[in-house]
Amino acid sequence: MPMLIQPETAPSCKGWRDIRHLVVCGSPIRPHQSAAYFAARALVVREASAGDDSRIVLITTRSREAMPLPLDIAVDVLPVFASADSGRSWSIDRAIFAYLFASVRPNTIFHIHDSRHPILIPIMQGIRALGIVYLGGRS
Predict the structure, then answer these.
(1) How far apart are CA 54 and CA 18, in angstroms?
(2) Number of C-alpha atoms within 13 angstroms, CB side, residue 104?
(3) Three-class SS of residue 56?
(4) What is the mean pLDDT of each run of 10 residues along the chain (139 residues)?
(5) What Rg, from alpha-carbon coordinates, does the chain have?
(6) What does the pLDDT read at residue 4?
(7) Alpha carbon distances (Å) from 131 to 4, 35, 59, 89, 106
């Protein structure tokens, strides 16, 4: 599977805070997932205008090209793989997992939207193990 992260959206060091909004969207995208994406999108726009390095990290079973959501702001698309059981079981490749934490800085904050999704359990464990600041919620 080709890497879906675009070089032009790779995290930079320009902002005072590095804020990464984690959003999970399956296939098909359900209304609550779309709402979480648009809530994160609004936050990214506000935070970027305030000088923060803010972006969405979209964890999805879809390719960037097949995404029905607008990707007109800083969005990293991280692919996951759904099992044959109607997408109820997801797994994340170790390379993608490593990418998520490769550019973490002391001022990195993760804002986790819909923290009850099972794919976020290993990600939250990694965040905690690295001592990264995070916020979790159902937005």
Answers:
(1) 6
(2) 18
(3) strand
(4) 42 71 85 90 94 92 86 89 62 81 90 83 87 77
(5) 14
(6) 42
(7) 27, 29, 21, 27, 10
For 64-75, letters b (16+ CB in 10 Å) and e give beebebebeebb
The predicted structure's pLDDT at residue 29 = 82
Question: Which two tokens mark 136?
Answer: 């979790």
Q: In what order do the strands lie in the sheet with 133-137?
A: 75-79, 53-60, 18-25, 108-113, 133-137
What's the token pair of residue 133? 């600041």
Cα angle for residues 77, 90, 87 (degrees, 5° grid): 100
Residue 10, token pair as written in the block: 């790779």
Determine the pLDDT at residue 2.
37
Amino acid (1-letter code) at residue 136: G
User: If we measure between CA atoms, which residue out of 64, 55, 60 comes closest to residue 5?
Assistant: 64
